[in-house]
Amino acid sequence: MAMISALKSIAKIFGEQTNFYFDYLLTNIHFWHFKTDVTSQGEELYITMNSRGEQLTDNEMQKARTLPSASLFEYGREWESWQTFFWRNRKRGKANNPNADKGFNNFLACIEGLECFAARLQKGSSVQLHTIKTYMDGLMYICSPEFRDLVLNVYQGFYTGWFDKFLTLLWSELNTYDGKWDIIDPRGGNQSLRNDYKNKSIARNKSMLFWSWMTYFYTCGKEIDAPLLIKILHFYYIRYQCFKRSSTSIDAVIRVFIDTQGKIHTLAEAFDDDEEDNLNSRIFSEEELLLSELYSSDESLTTEIESAIWELQDLPYYIDGRGVGGNTVYDFIADPEIIDRNNILASIETLKNRMLSLIATDVAKTSHISLKQILLFYVEDGKAFWSKQTPPYYSNYETSLWKRIVRSKHFVAFYKEFFASGLTIPEFLEMKRTEFFKQDNNRVINRNEKQWSHRKLAILYDILSVNNGIWDSDHENIVLWSNDDADCKNEIFLGQDTLWKGFRYYDQKSKISLRPDWQMILRDKYNVTIIDFE
């Protein structure tokens, strides 16, 4: 482009036939091609390049090392087409690169990383041109408008929104990632090698987004099964989003996909891998196997079932499984009370619509206080739905990480009970409060005895506080702190922990205090007996 711009400028200024200098310029301006791996030419080029204040980029160096002299023109042209491809996509994925170098360099490093990991290339050696071409053709294929149209056609009328998100993630990594791809296969290695692999978690996670389909193209060459490729892309889109970062299993997973045509649950003997990541012994999770089984449950509806589940998985509280076990929708799909195995598609649609009615899609900006009020009444394994946070010197309970909450046993139990009841959310909340105070150990409050548990205190103060409950849109947490005044009678129990609203930490201005008529509410509305201080 610089050369063309220069020629246009020259033509504009000196291009008149009457201008004496044009013929001179025409015969004295030359374009040179340097083989930088030839020492003398390389040194001359470095001097020339340094005069512009720039060094050769990685892809320029790779080009010089890789292109065969016998086919220089043919492959040089193709290399330029690759560079043009990265130029056209240099700003995709929330990037703003001035040229093609960032994305091109990163993908070449990604290729080299995969080849070294698969032991097809020694570190420090150059990747063969035909190998680069295989992966480059694969990248250009899945990013082409034609392949996107194919995805839309295969799932015509159904959900395909995940595919555009996948492409955005892919280009974001290519155009912005500054890390390395030097992951070494730890299987059979010593502990140091295993630790190094474990510490490369960021690169391993990114390998989910690239090495998976690259391995497929390496394995299949030009015999591409587009519908199967779509399944593989979605499978690893979910793994990437959930931070399931098993680089060691990629080759085995792709082989199983190819051998079973995507029905991975049918090849049970392939699931064992004694040194898989040195952490697990199975290459597929229970969720992945169950979903594969559901996809295949009705051959005439496979596409519809896949699409419905993929749309469900893409909801904001399901898509990110990092830190919450890695699964997305398993807790719901595995429950036969929620998913009718004789009517899977309708059950999935019902689940999606009900979850949207409860949580909507913008979980980051919605407190869902009414749901938290209800969830306090559910106890699973002796615990409430909240999660205790640091610091340790007071009890700070996180109550708004919905990707964690919706996967909890508390939420699943609430989901089933609520939709079976036929009640509205306010009606259901009042029913749970009434049931709570009918329980034998909650019918009497003796203010002289030991305080109730933090969960039960939260239920009481949520009903009885002057703050209209223990949460608001600015305070997502509930904090309980030891009372400095053991003789204080401003709380329900003598010496009881104080309650505060909080976000990350407690808010010193937001102590939760009782209403003056709290005793009357408990007596008149819920028939609770209160034994006052002695």
Word description of this protein:
With 534 residues, the protein is mostly helical. The protein contains 23 helices and seven strands. The chain has a five-stranded antiparallel β-sheet with strand order 1-2-4-5-6. A two-stranded parallel sheet has the order 3-7. Strand 5 and strand 6 form a beta hairpin. Helix 11 (201-220) packs parallel to helix 13 and helix 18 runs parallel beside helix 21. The longest helix is centred in the middle third of the chain and has 20 residues, at 201-220. It is elongated. The N and C termini lie far apart (90 Å). Residues 274-280 have low confidence and may be disordered.
Apparent shape: elongated
Q: How much β-strand is present in the residues? A: 5-15%
Q: Total strand count, please? A: 7
Largest sheet: 5 strands, antiparallel
Q: Would you identify the regions where 5 or more consecutive residues have pLDDT less than 50? A: 274-280
In helices, the fraction of residues equals 40-55%
The average pLDDT value, as a whole number, equals 89
Q: What is the C-alpha radius of gyration, as a whole number of Å?
A: 31 Å
Head-to-tail CA distance between termini? 90 Å
Pattern of helices and strands: HHHHHHHHHHHHHHHHHHEEHHHEHEEEHE
How many DSSP H or I helices?
23
Structural class: mainly alpha
Oligomeric status: single chain
Query: Can you list the strand order of the major beta sheet?
Result: 1-2-4-5-6
